[in-house]
Write a structure and sequence with these properties.
It is built from 15 helices and twelve strands. By secondary structure, the chain is of the alpha/beta class. It has two domains: about 10-265, Aspartate Aminotransferase, domain 2; about 270-390, Aspartate Aminotransferase, domain 1, CATH 3.90.1150.10. The strands form three sheets. A seven-stranded mixed beta sheet has the order 1-9-8-5-4-2-3. It has a three-stranded antiparallel beta sheet with strand order 10-12-11. The two termini are about 20 Å apart.
Length: about 400
């Protein structure tokens, strides 16, 4: 069988040995210096002023919206746009925060929301925030989307959990909005088993994210920032400050294991992306030689960092045919994320049917596509098996 991901880490054996040694010798395993070091190194790699580590990418998404509400940049009832082709924890926080979800269709040729789809959506429903998902390693025309958001005073957030390292001429994905989230779950570009990050150049938002991450207290802020918060709220002394809670928060703290693994895997991430891109060129060639299949358009992307291999078929019948072929070859497959998110049970429960909209792009992908894994541990034989399944 060719699974979605063979190993939890690159250099699995060496990483597990190093992790075991770290656990035995570490003074503590709750969030501490390794986490903070990983934040600094990841911010440097991503090209961001601030990086805030969380226990998962889903927590990072929820924390971003909570932080914006805490800062009064968002309020209950505000409209928040989001990509139709996305993950559940990109949409659920919108509902959980009492915000109004506004779904924006995707272009099936790019898998992502393009500026054309965003312009069409905001004509129908103005929005306060657009929370875009960069799907499966691909992305939309983010430079144009950023300009549309600026012109219409829309806060742009990126869910970059699946597109770590993808680059457009205007920069890396995850660097176009006010803030962006990343995931370090096992099957992602780099793994800390569970883990997530938010990157932002906004220092006020960064501080609030640290407050949201840790129960609403100021314990992880710089001492100078702590003085400001304590003075503002008349906190009498250090003793009282230990259990003073300034705003709404959660316990989304990671562990030192997360920090240690993050630092370890960050050293390998450029190699990881290089091999994924090489694999994709092999797959893409086979797809372009098969008229049953539709290649993903990434002409607007400088560097592609694929999360998986999307197989987009021209009809439902062809999807079923190729799905059967992949299954019989022992290749593990998945639906293309959540497909049309409006068809998901949780969405139907909380969103009135009258508020659903036509999503032809997401419907096409929902009905006609699936994906399999693309990662450095695929062997030469694995690649041959996958390519054979992509032939007409």
């Amino acid at each position: 069988m060719i699974p979605l991901m063979k190993n939890a880490f690159l250099k699995e054996k060496e990483t597990k040995k190093a992790l075991a040694k770290f656990i035995v010798t570490a003074d503590k395993l709750s969030m501490g210096e390794k986490c903070f070091e990983f934040e600094r190194e990841f911010a440097k790699w991503q090209g961001s002023k601030n990086a805030i580590l969380f226990n998962s990418g889903g927590s990072a998404n929820l924390a971003m919206l909570q932080a914006l509400k805490n800062l009064d940049r968002l309020k209950a009832g505000d409209a928040v746009g989001f990509s139709a082709l996305t993950w559940s924890t990109n949409v659920m926080p919108i509902i959980q925060m009492g915000l109004k979800p506004v779904v924006v269709d995707c272009n099936p040729n790019t898998l992502n929301v393009m500026s054309k789809q965003l312009l069409s959506a905001i004509k129908q429903q103005p929005m306060k925030v657009f929370f875009i998902t960069n799907a499966l390693g691909w992305t939309g025309d983010l430079d144009k989307i950023r300009n549309i958001c600026r012109k219409n005073k829309i806060l742009l957030l990126e869910d970059n959990c699946e597109s770590l390292g993808t680059k457009l001429p205007a920069g890396k994905t995850g660097s176009f909005g006010l803030a962006s989230s990343f995931s370090f779950f096992v099957a992602h570009h780099m793994s800390t088993i569970e883990g997530g990050m938010v990157c932002t150049n906004d220092h006020e938002l960064s501080d609030m994210l640290k407050i949201v991450r840790a129960n609403g207290w100021d314990r992880n802020l710089h001492p100078d920032k702590q003085k400001i918060w304590r003075k503002k709220h008349n906190v009498a002394n250090e003793f009282i400050s230990k259990y003073t809670f300034y705003n709404l928060g959660f316990n989304f703290r990671p562990t030192e294991i997360t920090g240690f693994l993050g630092l370890s895997q960050l050293k390998l991430v450029d190699y990881n992306i290089k091999i994924r891109e090489r694999n994709h060129r092999i797959f893409d060639k086979a797809i372009r030689n098969n008229p049953d299949l539709i290649p993903v358009d990434y002409r607007h992307i400088n560097k592609l960092s694929p999360f998986g291999l999307p197989v987009i078929c021209r009809t439902v019948e062809l999807r079923n045919h190729y799905l059967k072929r992949f299954n019989e070859a022992g290749i593990e497959v998945r639906p293309l994320i959540a497909g049309n998110i409006q068809k998901q049970p949780f969405y139907k429960k909380y969103i009135n049917e009258k508020d659903t909209v036509s999503l032809p792009g997401a419907d096409f992908l929902h009905n006609n596509s699936f994906y399999c894994g693309n990662y450095p541990d695929l062997s030469t034989n694995d690649l041959k098996v996958i390519v054979a399944c992509l032939k007409q």
